[in-house]
Amino acid sequence: MEIRKNVDKETRKQGNKETSRHVYLFPCLPVYLSTSLRDYFPMPIDYSSKASIGMLKRIPAGVFRMGSRFHPREYPARLMQVSEFQIAQVPVTASQYEVFVISEMVKERRWWSDEGWDWLNGKADGWGRRKREVPDGWTVQVNRSFHPVTGVTFYEAEAYCAWLSEMKGNAIRLPTEAEWEYAARGDDARPFPWGEEFHATFANTVEGERSSTLEASSMIHDASPFGVLGMCGNAQQWTSSVYTPMKGEVTPPGTLYVTRGGSFNDTLFGSRTSYRRAYPPGFFYPYLGFRIVVGAV
Predict the structure, then answer these.
(1) Are 187 and 62 in contact (CB under 8 A)?
(2) In the chain, which residues fall in CATH 3.90.1580.10?
(3) Chain segment 206-218, per-residue pLDDT in tens
(4) Does the domain at residues 47-294 carry the CATH identifier 3.90.1580.10?
(5) What are phi and psi of 82, to 5 degrees?
(6) Whole-angstrom distance, CA of residue 82 vs CA of residue 3
(7) Alpha helices, DSSP H, located in 90-229
(8) Backbone angles phi, psi at 25, to 5 degrees
(9) How far apart are alpha carbons 122 and 156 in whole angstroms?
C-alpha cells in the first residue's frame, strides 16, 4: 500500500521551538494517527514455530534380538538389524497435538491417507467415535498438557506426522515395530526398559493403581538403555507396522497395525518390551497414543 503524506503541514511555534505534526493518509482507511496497520490486517499465525518435535534420542545402527518365547505373537525370537534413527524421548503430548487442532489444519485433505480421509469424514467405521477432528476425550486432555495424547486412531497419528513434517521441514513418521523394540530394550534382550526385574514403582501400569496417564516425562525410571522414556507404561503406542495374524487367530476384518508398549491399563506381562498387540486403524482407547521418529525408513 502506498502511504502518502498530506501536503498540509501544521506548524506551531512554542517559544523558540518549532514542532511539526504530519498527518498520514491511508487510501480507503480512516485516518488514525496512532493506529497500526496490523489492526486492519492481522498477521497470520506462524504455526510452524508453535509446532514441536520435542527432545529426540539418537539410536545407533545395530543388531538386536527381537521377540521372545513368552507369547505366540512374539515368536520366533530372531536377530534384526536396524539402521540409525532418531526417536522422540517421550510420546506426543496433548500440548503438541493441540497445535494441530487449533490451527484447523487437521481438517485439510493433504495430511490424510485416502482411508484416513474417509474415516475423518464419516465414510468409515468410527467404532463409536462422534467427534473425529479431535482425539477422544479431548475436553479433558486439553487441560493435561504434558500427558501423552491418547484416544487417537492410527489415521490421526499418521496425519499428525505428515503435518509436523511440513511444519518442521523434516521427514517425521511413526516408528516401525523393530525400531520401537530396539529403542526400548537395546541389544541385550531385556524384558523391561531398565533391566530384567519388574518394579511397580518404575512405570505407570496396573500394578501402580493410578488408573490414568501421568505426565509423559514423569516416570524417570521407565527409561531404556538409550534414555527413551515411557516404553513400559503410561500409554500404548502405534507403530507403522502391519500385523500378520497367526494361523487360526480371530481378528477384526481389514488391515491391522501393531501397537507397542504398556499402559496404565496393562499388567506387567503386557508391558514387556517384546509384547505385541494389533488394532484396526480406526480403533482408539484412552490408553493408546503414539510417538514420532525423525528420518526416512
Answers:
(1) yes
(2) 47-294
(3) 999 999 999 999 9
(4) yes
(5) -125, 135
(6) 61
(7) 94-102, 114-120, 138-141, 154-168, 177-185
(8) -110, 130
(9) 14
